[in-house]
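re: ur question from yesterday

yeah so i grabbed the chain u mentioned. its 142 aa long if i counted rite. heres the sequnce exactly as i have it in my notes:
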Amino acid sequence: MKNVILSLAFLFFAGGLAAQAKAGETPAQKTTEKLVQLYNLTSDQQAEVLKTQERKYRNLAEIEPLKASDQELYAQKVRALQFANDKSLERILTKSQIPLLRQQQKTLREQKALANKELKASGASQEEINSKMLEIDLESLQ
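ran it thru and got these C-alpha cells back, copy pasting raw so excuse formatting
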C-alpha cells in the first residue's frame, strides 16, 4: 500500500514537472517543434533548427527598438532576417524536404501579392501597404 501511494505521488509530481516544462518553452522551442512536425526533421536537424530559431528570436529582439524609431529600417531588417532564416533552413534540410520549403515560400509570396492587390484596389496608401507587408513578414517568422 505504501508503494502504491508513493508511486502515485511520484506520477503526479512527474506530470506536474512535464506540464511546467511544456509551459516554459521558449518561442524558439515552440517554432522548432512546429518545424519538426512539418518537415519530419531528424534529431541532428532539430538541434540545428533550434540554434537558428534562437538566433532569429535574438535578432528580432535586437531590432525591436527600431520599430518605433525607424519603421523603414525595421522592415528592411525583418526582411533580411526572414531571408537569412530561410537560407539557414535551406542549408539544414535534405533535398527531399526542400520542395516543402519552396511551397511555403511560394504561398507567402502569393499571400503578399494578394494583400498588395487588395489594398491598392481599396485605395490604401503606400504606408498602409508597407505596414501590411511587414505584418505578413512578421507572421511568417513565427
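noticed a couple things. The CA atoms of residues 45 and 92 lie 6 Å apart. also The chain has a mean pLDDT of 86.
anyway ttyl
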